[in-house]
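Hi C.,

You asked whether I'd gotten around to modeling the 231-residue construct. I have! Everything is below, sequence then structure, no commentary in between.
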Amino acid sequence: MLEQVHPAPDLARLIRDYEGRGGVLMFAFFSDDFPRLPEPELHREAAIATLQAFAERNERYFAQEAVVQAFINAGLDPETHFRVTTQPEKAQGREITIAEFVGPLYEVGSHRLLLRGRTRNHLNHYFFAGEPESPGTVREIPGGMTGYGYAYAFTEPPYNLRGTSEEINTLFLSMNVQLFQDFEEAVTFYEWSTDWSTYFDAGHEWWGAFLWTVHNTKTNLILGIGASTTD
């Protein structure tokens, strides 16, 4: 059984900043200070523990007095609220590369995000963070696909992530250092199927549903990262 732990204060501050800007990724942190499991088993334990942590977070939210009262005011039974249930035996994971994890919207070598344009003529174009939005700076997406990978889930919630492109890029880089030691080789990544929990139902509507586990053998931490939302 993995032990859930709190993120370091600097990382907790960055996560609060990200959430305050409208980010939808969720994080769960665990210690691997126990007799070492083989890497696939460790990641599987982490995936299951992550969904359990998200379920507990969901229950705490719906137990808040203000939320209960909102149900009552709407003529609804508070006990009918959405619940996260899981079927762990259906979870399927695979080890992935750093490039597969981050996806096409981040250049690891240059430390730059590709961000969707926000000006009227460029809403469906992508630009490197910090570049002006103009026909001459439009960037092609490798493979032409954008709706997958950690960088997509981080930067493109259903409603825009608040902040300038430079602010978003800086926050992304700062969190990368804290979460992944800027993608050192000692970090392993697993991607998980999204058909084994009700947590993923909202994301299956259109935006996307994601679950990754990340193990850093230098820091003895493993984390779960998930997202599933809709408009």
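If it helps when you're writing up: The chain has a mean pLDDT of 89.

Thanks,
B.
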